[in-house]
Amino acid sequence: MKYWPLSSTAPDSNGAARRLRITHPFHPLCGREFEIVTYRMNWGDERVYVRAQDDELLSLPITWTTLGESSPFVEIAAGRSLFRFEELLELSQLLAQLK
Known about the structure:
The protein has a four-stranded antiparallel β-sheet, with no helix packed on it. It has helices at 72-77, 85-98, and strands at 19-21, 33-42, 45-51, 57-61. It is built from two helices and four strands, in the order E-E-E-E-H-H. A hairpin with a 5-residue loop joins strand 3 and strand 4 (57-61).
């Protein structure tokens, strides 16, 4: 899925800068807006890069922003659950390996 022109650091043809808002309810910067630096596919994960405070480059899964589709789990959980079932299962397997 392509969200912007090939040159992701350039503004759109109409001159508007690309911006996004962090929407993940547990992210400390949830609700804040940032200008997009670039977009990449890292190991099959769609990520967007923005400039945070102090000009630090911040990488986010695209689904945690207004560019991504809302996760049905996040919508239904409405902040009541910190983990998905798959994540808990993976955590239990990792803990079993540490024993």
